[in-house]
Amino acid sequence: QAKAAGRNQVFVYNETLSRAREEELELLSGLRDGLRYGQIIPFYQPRVSAEDGSIIGMEALARWKHPKLGMVPPSTFIPLAEKAGLINQIGTIVLEQAVEQREQWMRNGIDLTISVNLSLRQLCETGFSDVVEACLNRHSCPPERLELELTETLFSESDPLVQENLNRIRALGVRIAIDDFGTGYSNIARLNELAVDCIKIDRSLVSQLPKNEEMVRLVISMCKLMQVTIVAEGIENETVAEWARSHGVQELQGYLYGAPLPAACAEKLARNSNLQFSKIDVDNNRFV
Ligand code: C2E
Ligand code: MG
Ligand code: MG
Ligand code: MG
């Protein structure tokens, strides 16, 4: 009897595994369709000046507008896309749409810096810097109005192609930011060598303020030595915002100033920072 139960358990386990695999394959084929039918779109989250709270930029954050599942978050499809070799395609789509949107906003009288997240794989691609340059040209984007965000995984990367792409992108005048700073294992020497323009302190550090202020002070001192722009991510309340402001953080980002929003909402917010769009119903694209 015990043997039968054991066998049964093994059976259940396999069943679960294959179902997970099946679901992943289904999601993947959906993602391929999604790419084909333009379902990958960026949302935009404001980045504000610590000095006066004005919106100085927008970060493009990928969303998958799935016909049945609704708005699929990047935590679901970005890792899948990385695994399946689709991340470069997604990255290019987001870059193109974001830079085009910036141009549209510019025409509407709003001059913003646009930030786009990169996967390391994009930097491993020959000619990626040409893709960036062509995109800037197509949309008359001044290079300093584009910032590319990279995570610390970059530090362990020794691929010469990565360095070459980075050098070329920097030579164009595009800004480079280190995203999620404080979550990985930073190689300070490498960070200095990369000559980044901006460091974004990760939400996991920011959200614990002021409890962990000693550590964040240290990060800020290091950023000041390196003369990079300091951004705090994940600001959700005024207490944390005030701490950041009074300790030399230059730019703030988080739900307190706005969640990632559809382009039209982001534009309204940029026109009128007093609007509260953080509780927007993003699935239905409703303005709240
Ligand atoms: P990220 O670049 O660090 O983006 C910040 C994430 O934190 C976003 O999640 C944003 O919605 C969330 N966030 C912002 N402010 C707050 C806050 O005050 N509180 C809380 N709890 N969360 C906040 P999202 O949009 O789900 O994106 C997750 C990650 O997916 C991004 O982290 C980025 O690493 C990645 N990602 C998004 N779009 C792209 C893309 O186009 N390409 C690549 N390679 N990665 C992307
Ligand atoms: Mg980012
Ligand atoms: Mg981040
Ligand atoms: Mg983060």
Automatic annotation (TrEMBL):
Q: Which residues form a coiled coil?
A: none
Where does the record place the EAL domain?
Answer: 24-274
Q: What is this protein called?
A: Bifunctional diguanylate cyclase/phosphodiesterase
Q: What is the species of this protein?
A: Rhizobium lemnae
Please tell me where this chain falls within the complete protein, as first and last residue plus total length.
Answer: 406 to 693 of 697
